[in-house]
Amino acid sequence: MSYSVGQVAGFAGVTVRTLHHYDDIGLLVPSERSRAGHRRYGDADLDRLQQILFYRELGFPLEEIAALLGDPDADPQAHLRRQHDLLTARIEKLQKMAAAVEHAMEARSMGINLTPEEKFEVFGEHDPDQYEDEVRERWGDTDAYRQSRQRTASYTKEDWKQITDELDALHRRVADLLAAGTPADSAEAMDAAEEHRLFITRAYYDCGHEMHTCLGEMYVADPRFTEMYDRIRPGLAAYLRDAIVANAARHTA
Fold first, then answer.
1. Contacts of 52 (CB under 8 A, 6+ apart)
2. Most buried of 14, 113, 197, 224 (most Cβ within 10 A)?
3. Cβ atoms < 10 Å from Cβ of 98
């Protein structure tokens, strides 16, 4: 049984012009011709075309494919084994590339250039992107959100460790003031609150006193923030909020 050039082009997903070219350069010469001189391809021709297309998909130039298929010592099974090995290697490479792209997409969406292991090393049990969808929904159209994403997108593991250590130290200072009975509207507490505001401005986005006050209120209104701060020291969320409010009043009076 034989097939016309149009039929073969449809089977193989190539153009008629491509088959004509393969014939012209001697890479795939149809085994038959019709009485009118039209190309007719048999099963052996289709097998050879399949071999050609395998190698083309793997990036081999036509000259090299012709040399490989023209090797009298290579049997069809050897070609299949070679192609299988090449395809397996390519699949592994593409899988690694896909994983790298996925990693880059995740890092871009989180604004964090860290591996999962590095994230755990830096943040411990806290997942920095746990509430990303909620944050994007609530503040995604604000300048602060866009500014934060832009700044944090380039942060490395060392950057995040430094930021986390600095914030932890600041939280401990405020907790120590609370433990010592220092009033939230004292100079020490308000100075710590101002340092907290400047930290946010430096690390994430420009945070004025009005925005900082809103953050302080959220620390108390949102039980998730309250729990996080109160784990450091009971009552810390409310104390930090009060210090932030007092500090804002001091600077806007």
1. 22, 27, 28, 65, 69
2. 197
3. 10
Model confidence band, residue 253 (pLDDT cutoffs 50, 70, 90) = low
Q: What are 186-238's pLDDT values in tens digits?
A: 999 999 999 999 988 888 888 888 888 888 888 888 887 888 889 889 999 99
Contact between residue 111 and residue 154 where contact means Cβ atoms under 8 Å apart = no
Helices vs strands, H then E, count in the chain? 13, 3
Q: Which residues of 180-201 are buried (b: 16+ CB within 10 A; e: fewer)?
A: eebebeeebbbebbbebbeebe
Residue 111 DSSP symbol: T
Quick: pLDDT tens for 115-160: 555 444 444 444 444 444 444 454 445 566 677 777 777 777 677 7
CB 207 within 8 A of CB 144: yes
Closest C-alpha to 89, from 46, 112, 58, 45:
58
**Cα(124)–Cα(244) distance, rounded to whole angstroms?**
27
Q: What angle in degrees, to the nearest 10, is found between the helix axes of 187-203 and 157-179?
A: 170
